[in-house]
Amino acid sequence: MKDQAERLREKVRRSQGAAVARTIAVTSGKGGVGKSNVALNLALSLMERGKRTLLFDLDLGFANLDVLLGYTPRLTLIDMVEKGLSLDDVIERGPYGLELISGGSGLGSLFHLDQGQINDMLDKLDTLSKRLDYIILDTGAGLSAESLRLMLAVDDIWLVTTPEPTSMTDAYGVIKALCKYNGEINLHVIVNRCYTPVEGVRTARRLQTVAKQFLNKEIRYLGYLPNDPSVHQAVLSQTPFIKLFPACQAAQAIAVLTARYLNQPLQDNARREGRGLRSFFKQLIAPFLQKGTG
Fold this sequence. Notes:
This protein is of the alpha/beta class. The protein has helices spanning 2-15, 35-48, 65-69, 77-83, 87-90, 115-129, 145-152, 165-181, 197-215, 229-236, 241-244, 249-262, 270-273, 276-293, and strands spanning 22-28, 53-58, 92-93, 99-102, 134-139, 156-161, 186-194, 220-226. The protein has one domain (2-9, 21-286): P-loop containing nucleotide triphosphate hydrolases (Rossmann fold), CATH 3.40.50. Helices cover 51% and strands 16% of the residues.
């Protein structure tokens, strides 16, 4: 799977002269750790820093970005493919100017499209990627075949965990599975619901230590998010916490975390180096195309 991904990545880079958006998958080893909330507030935080950002709900089993934002998507990516709609038709212009796309509950049907439908979809996604800086993908928690395939197709992965031992164990399981197929994948860890900054550092160091020892994998610690009651209130209000309580501890932590991500050397050329959605979906469906032509 790794060799196939590298071939596809190189092919797309040769065919695309223009800069494309960088794709970030936000994932977790288990549900209930605040993954979708991190993805939503991350997207808005990037926008506050002048980055053109789109949020893509690809949690196939428990999509809840609509609940966190208080909106109901009219159309999905599947509608675009099956009904021949334009990309603008399925992009939601949500609150705060955030652009969103819902994958839809039938996202698995992407793996059964004919070549004409696939080419049309990739052309539309290619246009989108060239006018954005970042595309945030809220993926499913855990290690389903679909979520693993999604994560292997992006530029960067933000792995959300909590200090709880079960959450850390499941997070390591995700790291191990990803490294099995691509040991060079860009992994960043975020520790959510910490009572102190030290708790976040200790949790991240445990993951970094075992990943280095058993997988020879370096993982970057981006930061922590505090166990802030404002987050719960924002969820009940169906409003992102960085908008409802911009001065709260969690909002300040998201700002620090976002700045740290953007300041890494890899991001100096983010627009040039990003693969974008076209590459993402090409890599995602490639195994199924090969099966169909073999």
